[in-house]
């Protein structure tokens, strides 16, 4: 009898995880690949039924890395179809389909997407890697009332000859996709009437010469572009966060109607020919890595709201851009300079820094934090800039300098050099890293 009493509780405790609330079990299963979720269905009837209502589904087929054989693609397609057709929850929260194959003829991605859309899917991540042709996203699926997040990756062609209706879409990611033409871009974006977050990641393979982004509801925009001589037109009156990053030469980037902009990060390795700074005067936080030689700035434009500035100190005559920004940012509180660190930037001849004619207002009344990462302390121009800020920043509380690869002698020389500067702020703390 004692033995039975001992065994009873033990047997009951073997499957304690099944006693967890259904909501918690579904949350756990949502973190697993769908093939692993399917494997759990053999545990019990309860697990089998849970498989049919897991909110997030992910299916991955990768023939290119020899993880699958060509003959498995049709079987994979059938498994995805069966799983979707047996789905019983009223809404499919997320559907992630990743197919990498040499033969696209063995799978009908459009049919699988159609089934998922019939389940009122809210988030779709589609990655397609075919050898010959790109997958053309079905036009009829651009009219979905439930889709809130849409991510396209790789060899997907967007052919949108007429306007679409994605009224619930809040987030759209376009990574390395192809566009039939510029009209397809305009029609797609104009149909996303509530879009708030847009990521455009281009690699130069599409035929769109001028990429136009006109989205009144857009709040966050990220552009990553290695396309040589790209052109952009941005009109987003609700935009608050902007990031533009390019390893090539932007032919133009016209930014209009962004008076609500709060934060901007602009990193373009070579020329940009527009008055880009004029478009950013409403920002509170600004990060710039652009060529001062190609920047024009209209007289009278002031960054009244700017309190945080991060500037790349690795371009020819970068200090001229610094002078311009200090002169036009009267309320600046935080300044961060980042020294030479970009592997793509070619060595260029350096000029001579001319300090401002008058001490900028931000140095006299507002600047509190100064950081210089990778400070080139042995260069005279860099030393002049650092000394000028320390000598004139009356409210400075903390100045931090860092430089990698220094030996103890060099580090000591750098510290002594900076500590010898007569500082405008008696409470300024010097920090060396």
TrEMBL record:
The UniProt entry, under Gene3D superfamilies, shows: 1.20.1280.50, Ribonuclease Inhibitor
Positions of transmembrane segments:
none
- Please list the residue ranges annotated as the F-box domain: 14-64
Check the record and name the InterPro entries matching this protein.
F-box-like_dom_sf, F-box_dom, FBD, FBL13/AtMIF1-like, LRR_dom_sf, LRR_FXL15/At3g58940/PEG3-like
Report the SMART domains cross-referenced here. FBD (SM00579)
PROSITE patterns on file = FBOX
Protein name per the record: F-box/FBD/LRR-repeat protein
What species is given as this protein's source? Cardamine amara subsp. amara
């Amino acid at each position: 009898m004692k033995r039975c009493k001992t065994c009873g509780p033990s047997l009951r405790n073997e499957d304690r995880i099944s006693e967890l609330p259904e909501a918690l079990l579904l949350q756990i299963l949502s973190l697993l690949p769908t093939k692993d979720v399917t494997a759990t269905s053999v545990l019990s009837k309860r697990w089998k039924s849970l498989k049919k209502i897991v909110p997030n589904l992910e299916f991955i087929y990768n023939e290119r890395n020899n993880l699958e054989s060509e003959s498995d693609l049709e079987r994979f397609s059938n498994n995805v179809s069966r799983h979707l057709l047996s789905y019983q929850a009223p809404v499919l929260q997320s559907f992630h389909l990743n197919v990498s194959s040499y033969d696209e003829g063995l799978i009908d991605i459009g049919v699988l997407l159609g089934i998922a859309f019939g389940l009122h899917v809210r988030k779709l991540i589609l990655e397609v890697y075919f050898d010959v042709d790109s997958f053309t996203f079905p036009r009829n699926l651009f009219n979905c009332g439930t889709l809130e997040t849409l991510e396209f990756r790789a060899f997907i062609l967007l052919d949108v000859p007429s306007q679409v209706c994605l009224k619930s879409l809040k987030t759209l990611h376009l990574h390395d996709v192809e566009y039939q033409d510029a009209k397809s871009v305009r029609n797609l974006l104009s149909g996303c009437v509530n879009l708030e977050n847009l990521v455009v990641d281009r690699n130069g393979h599409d035929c769109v010469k001028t990429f136009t982004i006109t989205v009144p509801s857009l709040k966050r925009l990220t552009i990553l572009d290695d396309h040589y001589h790209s052109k952009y037109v941005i009109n987003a009156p609700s935009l608050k966060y902007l990031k533009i990053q390019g390893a090539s030469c932007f032919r133009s980037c016209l930014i209009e109607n962004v008076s609500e902009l709060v934060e901007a990060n602009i990193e373009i390795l070579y020329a940009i020919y527009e008055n880009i700074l004029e478009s950013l005067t409403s920002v509170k936080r600004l990060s710039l890595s652009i060529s001062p030689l190609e920047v024009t700035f209209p007289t009278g434009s002031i960054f009244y709201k700017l309190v945080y500035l991060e500037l790349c100190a690795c371009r020819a005559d970068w200090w001229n851009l610094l002078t311009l920004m200090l002169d036009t940012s009267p309320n600046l509180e935080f300044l961060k300079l980042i020294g030479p660190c970009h592997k793509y930037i070619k060595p260029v001849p350096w000029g001579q820094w001319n300090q401002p004619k008058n001490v900028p207002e931000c140095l006299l009344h507002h600047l509190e934090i100064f950081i210089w990462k990778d400070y080139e302390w042995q260069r005279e121009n860099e030393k002049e800039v650092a000394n000028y800020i320390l000598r004139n920043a009356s409210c400075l509380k903390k100045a931090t300098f860092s430089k990698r690869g220094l030996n103890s002698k060099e580090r000591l020389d750098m510290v002594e050099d900076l500590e010898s500067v007569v500082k405008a702020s008696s409470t300024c703390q010097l920090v060396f890293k």
